[in-house]
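Researcher: Structure prediction, please.
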Amino acid sequence: MLEAMSWRYVLFYIRLKAAYLSQDMKNAMSMVPESKRKSYLKTANELVDNMYEFDYYVRTPKIYESYVYYEKTLKSIDDLVALLA
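Model: Predicted structure follows.
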C-alpha cells in the first residue's frame, strides 16, 4: 500500500495523464480515415469515461472498483491503439 502522503502524487499523475491523453486523441482524430471515425469516437469516449471513473474511485477507499476501472482503462487504451494501427 502507498503511504498516505503519496496518494496526492498518484491523483496528480492520473489527472495529468488524462489531460495529455485527451489532447493526443484530438490530434489523432485528424489521422483517422472517415470510415473509422464513428468507432474511433466511441472508443475514445469510452476511454475518457473510464479514466474519469478511475480517477474518482482512486480518491475513495473502494479498492476493488479502482482496480476494475484500471483494467477497463487499459483495455480501452489497447482498443484505441488497435484501431489506429
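Model: The chain has a mean pLDDT of 81.
Researcher: Thanks, that helps.
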